Amino acid sequence: MTQCLCQSKKLEKLHEIIAVHKGKAGTLIPVMHEAQDLFGHLPLDVQSMIAEGLEVPLADVYAVATFYSKFTLQPKGVYSIQVCLGTACYVKGAQALLDKLAELLHIKVGETTEDGLFTLEATRCIGACGLAPVMTVNDEVYGRLSVEQIDDIVHKYMEMAWKDEEHGDTSESR
Ligand code: FES
């Protein structure tokens, strides 16, 4: 992934965001949200910029970043796999789906595969309980899933990524 030009533009944009919010009350979380939208995650240098810009301790920024599940310190994969662990899905075996995915991708919940392709997450109810157990991959919803289907679904996305690579597309399709 080439970052150079984009990265400097993003940093510039972050400066602007901070400048707009600076000096106002309750701006830390909104700024962090905008920063995460911009970078996809909140690495330490971004947290430092926010802390410096808003004149709050870096420890406060870090505490917020690690407390709220909406924030992530790690870059997200091209495909974000979210398994619902709400009651209906849990009762129908969602944990087994999550375990299978973790085993297959060699990552834990909240982590991203080394190749940057998949991020594995657990979510609360997404309002599709009738389809339990449910998992989503980016915007696609998979319902009434069984562990046996997991392999095929993951491989489908791997193949899509390979095809994109063959055609010269990058992972900027997020
Ligand atoms: S509990 Fe999973 S969609 Fe509602």
UniProtKB/TrEMBL annotation:
<protein>
    <submittedName>
        <fullName>NADH-quinone oxidoreductase subunit NuoE</fullName>
    </submittedName>
</protein>
<comment type="similarity">
    <text>Belongs to the complex I 24 kDa subunit family.</text>
</comment>
<dbReference type="GO" id="GO:0051537">
    <property type="term" value="F:2 iron, 2 sulfur cluster binding"/>
</dbReference>
<feature type="binding site">
    <location>
        <position position="84"/>
    </location>
    <ligand>
        <name>[2Fe-2S] cluster</name>
    </ligand>
</feature>
<feature type="binding site">
    <location>
        <position position="129"/>
    </location>
    <ligand>
        <name>[2Fe-2S] cluster</name>
    </ligand>
</feature>
<keyword id="KW-0411">Iron-sulfur</keyword>
<dbReference type="InterPro" id="IPR041921">
    <property type="entry name" value="NuoE_N"/>
</dbReference>
<keyword id="KW-0001">2Fe-2S</keyword>
<feature type="binding site">
    <location>
        <position position="89"/>
    </location>
    <ligand>
        <name>[2Fe-2S] cluster</name>
    </ligand>
</feature>
<feature type="binding site">
    <location>
        <position position="125"/>
    </location>
    <ligand>
        <name>[2Fe-2S] cluster</name>
    </ligand>
</feature>
<dbReference type="GO" id="GO:0046872">
    <property type="term" value="F:metal ion binding"/>
</dbReference>
<keyword id="KW-0479">Metal-binding</keyword>
<dbReference type="InterPro" id="IPR042128">
    <property type="entry name" value="NuoE_dom"/>
</dbReference>
<keyword id="KW-0408">Iron</keyword>
<dbReference type="InterPro" id="IPR028431">
    <property type="entry name" value="NADP_DH_HndA-like"/>
</dbReference>
<dbReference type="GO" id="GO:0016491">
    <property type="term" value="F:oxidoreductase activity"/>
</dbReference>
<dbReference type="InterPro" id="IPR036249">
    <property type="entry name" value="Thioredoxin-like_sf"/>
</dbReference>
<dbReference type="Pfam" id="PF01257">
    <property type="entry name" value="2Fe-2S_thioredx"/>
</dbReference>
<dbReference type="InterPro" id="IPR002023">
    <property type="entry name" value="NuoE-like"/>
</dbReference>
